[in-house]
UniProtKB/TrEMBL annotation, chain A:
Residues 20-439 form the DUF112 domain. This is Tricarboxylate transporter. It comes from Falsiroseomonas bella. Coiled coil: none annotated. The keyword Nucleotide-binding does not apply. Keywords: Membrane, Transmembrane, Transmembrane helix. The keyword Repeat does not apply. PANTHER family: BLR4373 PROTEIN (PTHR35342:SF1), TRICARBOXYLIC TRANSPORT PROTEIN (PTHR35342).
UniProtKB/TrEMBL annotation, chain B:
It holds the Pfam family TctC. Belongs to the UPF0065 (bug) family. It comes from Falsiroseomonas bella. Residues 1-21 form the signal peptide. PANTHER family: BLR4371 PROTEIN (PTHR42928:SF1), TRICARBOXYLATE-BINDING PROTEIN (PTHR42928). The keyword Transmembrane helix does not apply. Gene3D superfamilies: Bordetella uptake gene, domain 1, Periplasmic binding protein-like II. Keywords: Signal. This is Tricarboxylate transporter.
Length: 500, 338
């Protein structure tokens, strides 16, 4: 139990009064940052990074990582209340979280989201504490073919597990890939689909698209419904937290499974976004109440939130042990490590044990502090919905515009956001699912890169994806999932003549 | 409108200068100009990369040592391999509150993509340092010298990983091929940290990472440096592994490989700023270079600490631009060439 002793030492560092204060400041700032779409955790930390330059490294990283936890918690708030995911991994939370809010169960959804976030993060931290070196070695096995296999599995899971028409899912996904292709092609260094416009060089940022597709189109839908507002039943009542807590233990299996999916995706390092989608898909597939998903099942909130936080937390592990960030926020923290004179990588655990274990201890404490803060605030968050929609719609529109602008400090993005709002509205009316589009837009670049890197390495040989058991088995699972709708259709067709 | 702004900023600048003098002076520039608004430092690359780290270090040093009355704001404009950031700086004509940190994409991006900008569209302020490149292989590989490595590369196309496409890493790779005749299979990745890990995991055979991107894996015994692409050896004499210091890595030339490449880490201003404004920024950045934090950063990344301002810097830029054009032309990387 060598780790245990080191962890206790870490707690001693993290529990120093000034570090505790920084922890609370960090969590509160993080929640605010997470609530504002556009100003995600990565941006928030980047802005505050220079302020920490004068602090001791442990204090600095404690504050910044607490901003990270806070932002992770905060991302769920707007997803549930307004159907506007503030972060890529909150998209899956909107599927059931927003319907719950519309039914007046916003407090319940928020409590479930926060609690399962905490559970996910906690499982991941325990794992980091005790099996870090083993896992660090595993991440090294992931080259481009393995990475592509994981991405392929995420997309396949969506086709096989999505609701509605598989064909529409695929079409929405292809539209997402097309949008992701705009801008610089990282493989050849050439500009693609920019039509000579300097504004298009940047490509389509995920956040701008998502704010438009989800947020703006939702406002358009509500306006069509005559500004009728559906969340008024929400009361300011702290008891909702306790009531939800009584119900949560029943879903332990989903939470555990999602936490494991999350840890695995965080380490590989595919990241929190595919983790949340995949775990939502799996939860829906396995559930007995499959048809009710997307209409306000609490499991639909628990699964993605647990997985996203488990992934977000374990994404810090490859950063610490290998120097490879598992998420954009981790990338900024990585820059911070170097500025504080620490060298992330395999030597960090050996040479800076105080720092590493202080950080790990602060992961435990920061998450507990974060949970308490956001839970106390649940009734107030839920009460936002009592404001008349005519008022709140205008505020949402302004916040969305600010968010879209903040992503790249570009006015053009506000126009893009509005355009995406209209596209989102049309797609919703035609019953095309938006989530596959968003998934392809977020992961399209990385997936394409991994695919082409693999083929460069193998000099054009497609069997590279089956060159070892790891990528081979993931690919096989992906192919089965992608073909699932076809297989079940085939089974039905084969079964029917037998019946007749 | 612009006249109005400049008159107001002049007045504020003078006011600032007077009050500074009254306080005993804290290094207000002799010409009397100083920033009157927050200074925007554009990073034409993503968060977490080498340029971004340096920009944020400058920001932190300036605020910690109170070198400037106005804050520095770091803004990432990474789109189109940095084209977005450069176009923004180019468009900020006569605005002294815009700075941009440059790396080799100042030369390579316009050449490879045809996006219209060059260093001549900006005002060169100061070269802060030059970044080194080292040839790395996996420590378990059989290659101990550049000679053995090149021999192996001639036998079978080795996989060379690097950051980005038609940028510095691929240019060096092409230069090695030209010098030795050994073909490489170049595989582009997103960033240096990712490249280093791919090499540790043996998904690729070699890289030309910057020292700071690979140092931790070297110290952990996972990577082996073969040579540095500079005319002289690196400065660090402190042992990084049990047997080697930065200084013990031979230069490429010593090893019989005639390839030299250094990457600019410099600061440029918007076009058309006044000499007083240029002097102020050059002076400020000179002070940054003298702080212990900066020296620590330089030592960590084994940077070449050459600095230049004014005409010398402009001459250097013109020479490097020509060199890049020649290198990229030979490799077939120019826009419209492939």
């Amino acid at each position: 139990m060598d780790e245990f002793g080191l962890l206790m030492q870490g707690f001693a560092v993290a529990l120093q009064p000034e570090n505790l204060v920084l922890m609370l400041v960090g969590v509160v700032l993080g929640v605010l940052i997470g609530v504002l779409p556009g100003l995600g955790g990565a941006n928030g930390i980047a802005i505050l990074l220079p302020l920490t330059f004068a602090m001791p490294p442990v204090s600095a990283v404690i504050m910044l990582s607490c901003i990270y936890w806070g932002a992770l918690f905060g991302g769920a708030i707007t997803s549930i209340l307004f159907n506007i995911p503030g972060e890529p991994w909150s998209v899956a939370t909107t599927f059931d979280g927003y319907p719950m809010a519309q039914q007046g169960r916003a407090g319940e959804a928020l409590t479930a989201a926060f609690t399962s976030s905490f559970v996910g993060a906690f499982v991941a931290v325990v794992m980091i504490t005790f099996v870090a070196p083993v896992i660090a070695g595993f991440a090294l096995r992931f080259g481009p073919p393995e990475f592509f296999a994981v991405m392929f599995l995420s997309f396949a899971a969506f086709i096989g597990m999505g609701r509605g028409s598989a064909l529409k899912t695929v079409m929405a996904m292809m539209l997402g890939f097309l949008l992701a292709a705009v801008g610089m092609d990282a493989m050849t260094g050439q500009l693609r689909l920019t039509f000579g416009s300097t504004e298009m060089i940047r490509g389509f940022d995920f956040l701008v698209a998502v704010i438009g597709l989800f947020g703006i189109s939702e406002i358009l839908m509500s306006i069509e419904d005559g500004l009728r507002f559906r969340g008024q039943k929400a009361r300011i009542d702290l008891k909702v937290v306790l009531r939800t807590w009584r119900e949560l233990p029943r879903h332990w299996a989903i939470a555990l499974r999602s936490a494991l999916i999350g840890c695995w995706m965080g380490i590989t390092p595919a990241g929190a976004t595919p983790a949340s989608f995949m775990s939502y898909g799996v939860a829906r597939r396995i559930s007995k109440h499959r048809a009710e998903f997307g209409k306000g099942r609490i499991e639909g909130v628990i699964a993605p939130e647990t997985a996203a936080h488990a992934a977000g937390t374990s994404a810090l592990l490859p950063m610490l042990t290998l120097g490879v960030p598992g998420s954009p926020t981790a990338a900024v923290l990585l820059g911070g490590l170097i500025m504080w004179g620490l060298q992330p990588g395999p030597m960090l655990f050996v040479e800076q044990a105080d720092f590493v274990w202080g950080l790990i201890a602060s992961m435990y404490l920061g998450n507990i502090a974060g949970l308490l803060i956001v839970l106390v605030a649940v009734p107030w968050f839920a009460a936002i919905l009592r404001v008349p929609f005519a008022v709140i719609a205008a505020i949402i529109l302004v916040v969305c515009a600010i968010g879209a602008y903040t992503v790249n400090n570009a006015e053009f993005d506000i126009v893009l956001m509005l355009a995406f709002g209209v596209i989102g509205y049309v797609l919703k009316k035609l019953d095309y699912p938006l989530a596959p589009l968003v998934l392809a837009l977020v992961l399209g670049d990385r997936t394409e890169e991994a695919f082409r890197q693999s083929l460069l390495i193998s000099e054009g040989d497609l069997t590279v994806f089956f060159h070892n058991w790891l990528s081979g088995s993931i690919m096989a699972a992906g192919i089965v999932l992608a073909a699932w709708p076809l297989l079940s259709a085939l089974r039905l067709r084969l079964a029917r003549p037998a019946v007749a | 409108m612009s006249k109005l702004v400049s008159r107001r900023s002049l007045a504020l600048g003078l006011g600032g200068g007077v009050s500074m003098a009254a306080l005993g002076g804290r290094g207000a520039s002799a010409a009397g100009w100083e920033p009157t608004r927050p200074v925007q430092l554009i990073v034409p690359a993503g968060t977490g990369g080498g340029a971004d780290q340096m920009a944020r270090a400058i920001q932190g040093i300036v605020s910690k040592h109170n070198l400037l009355r106005q804050p520095i704001v770091v803004v990432n404009k990474a789109g189109g391999a940095g084209a977005e950031g450069f176009l923004e700086a180019k468009g900020a004509r006569r605005n002294p509150h815009v700075l941009i940190i440059t790396l080799s994409n100042l030369f390579t991006t316009p050449m490879a993509t045809g996006v219209p900008f060059s260093w001549r569209d900006l005002t060169p302020i100061r070269m802060m340092a030059l970044d080194e490149f080292v040839l790395w292989v996996n420590a378990e590989s059989p290659w101990k010298t550049v000679g053995e490595f090149v021999e192996a590369a001639k036998g079978s196309r080795l996989r060379m990983g690097g950051t980005g496409s038609k940028q510095e890493d691929q240019i060096i790779t092409a230069a090695i091929t030209r010098a030795t005749g050994a073909p490489f299979n170049y595989v582009p990745f997103r960033g240096g940290g990712e490249v280093a890990v791919q090499l540790v995991g043996r998904h690729i055979d070699s890289t030309v990472n910057n020292p700071i991107e690979a140092v931790t894996h070297w110290r952990a015994g996972a990577l082996r440096p073969l040579c540095v692409f500079d005319s002289q050896r690196l400065a660090g004499t402190e042992k990084m592994t049990e047997t080697m210091a930065w200084r013990d890595i031979p230069t490429a030339k010593e090893s019989g490989l005639d390839v030299e490449y250094l990457m600019l880490r410099g600061i440029m201003g918007a076009p058309g700023i006044t000499p007083a404004q240029l002097d102020f920024h050059a002076d400020l950045l000179g002070k940054v270079r003298e702080t212990p934090e900066w020296r620590e950063l330089m030592a960590q990344g084994a940077f070449n600490t050459t600095t230049m301002t004014g005409d010398a810097f402009a001459t250097w830029l013109a020479r490097e631009e020509e060199r890049h054009r020649a290198l990229m032309q030979e490799a077939g990387f120019l826009a419209g060439q492939s």
